[in-house]
Amino acid sequence: MSESPTLEPKIGFVDPETAMVLTGIEFISGMGNGNLPLPPMLGVMPARPHSWNEGQVEFRAKPEHRFANPMGSTHGGWIMTMLDTAMGVAAHSTLARGESYTSVDTSVRFVRAIPIDGDELRIMGRVLSRGRRIITVEGRIETVGTGGEPGKLCATGTSSCMVLAMRKPDRGA
After folding, report:
1. pLDDT (tens digit per residue) in 43-102
2. 21, burial (CB in 10 Å: exposed 0-12, middle 13-18, buried 19+)
3. Terminus of the chain with fewer CB atoms < 10 Å: N or C?
């Protein structure tokens, strides 16, 4: 298992020609180790890679006041985005060179309210099935837990992703 460094991450895009020659786990490891930039969405909704293996990833995040709903707890859109991110990255970690993916569907279940500025959260994605064309993934958000106490489950999700062949960048005529 790999774990992320404590450096401030780079945010940006990976050159398509670079992405095409990396396996999914090489790509995810590059982002987690800071050798490749994290996607721009993680600059808006901060979450950091914590650990990754093929088919399984964990991010860490703390919801901020700017992600509050009118009731003062964490907005469901933030929760869904975090689950979608972890599940998508878990699926991505299983890709071969030259493969890409897109989400087909995602379902989320809220288990308990997540307080703003509360405990650090573990946002996990795990591949349940990797077929030739469809990857089925599950996700969980739970508190980290302290003093040997297990974390509390906050939300769960499932997703299906379709495997696609990556296209070479068009260089024009």
Report:
1. 998 899 999 999 999 999 999 999 999 999 999 999 999 999 999 999 999 999 999 999
2. exposed
3. C
The pTM assigned to this predicted structure is: 0.89
* DSSP letter (8 states) at residue 167: P
Residue 84 has what pLDDT?
Answer: 97
Tokens of 156: 């769960």
Q: In what order do the strands lie in the sheet with 99-110?
A: 2-3, 48-53, 56-61, 121-130, 134-143, 153-165, 99-110
Calpha distance 99→121 (Å, rounded): 30
Tokens representing 18 are 């670079």
Enter the tokens of residue 56. 């399984």
Contact 41, 50 (CB under 8 A): no
Cβ-proximal residues to 150 (8 Å cutoff; 6+ apart), any chain = none
